[in-house]
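Suppose you are handed a protein chain with no further information: no name, no annotation, nothing but its sequence. What can you learn? This example shows the usual starting point.
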Amino acid sequence: MKHCKKFLLALAAAFALFTQAAFAEKLRIGSEGAYPPFNLIDASGKVVGFDLDIAHALCAKMKVECEVVTSDWDGIIPALNAKKFDFIVASMSITDERKKAVDFTDPYYTNKLQFIGPKGTEVKVDKAGLKGKVVGAQRATIAGEWLEKNLGSAVDLKLYDTQENAYLDLSSGRIDLVLADVFVNWGWLKSDAGKEFEFKGEPVFDNDKIGIAVRKNDPLRERLNAALKAIIEDGTYKKINDQYFPFSIL
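A reasonable first move is to predict its three-dimensional structure. Written in structure tokens, the prediction is:
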């Protein structure tokens, strides 16, 4: 009996050491914290949202401990490459330009761009219809780049450091329209601040793939891809999706 107890104690100790070792790795998630409902800072100061729920689910699958580090959007890729965090989960569009600086995982959702403006105003979403309009977008985003490329000569373009500041100017009447990710706009339109506004026209940019950014040639990319595949297959992804949207964004 003594030998049996000693064996069980040894087995328990070995299991504890194995568990500690399995979770000994710590990774840092980079996010903005100013892009609801995907990433935002709640009343307690915690970074929450769809992006973070996905990130923590991936960390659990990889059996690693993760913490969140926030960064201004403009500097989030330089911060990743300066090793201030290990991967970015911040609703970042996969673009050829960004792929020069970082590697991306498989997409974890698909986005569109669409205008919003005050209810009851007629807006034709083309160069002629938008000529002279003051249009806002977040700086260094697909929306801002699309506006500069396609409507820069027709509209008075205002670029903002955060999406929240663009919405603030829209609700205050300082700008006529905002172009942003359709799901972010959808979330804002459901809020008290957005209740007097609506979508204008059809989406102007479709099939925008959103991925997780890692440093160039980092093997973490493949681990994240495997974890992403696993949370989609086991239903974890759908549970998170359904907490935020009544439709699939995958």
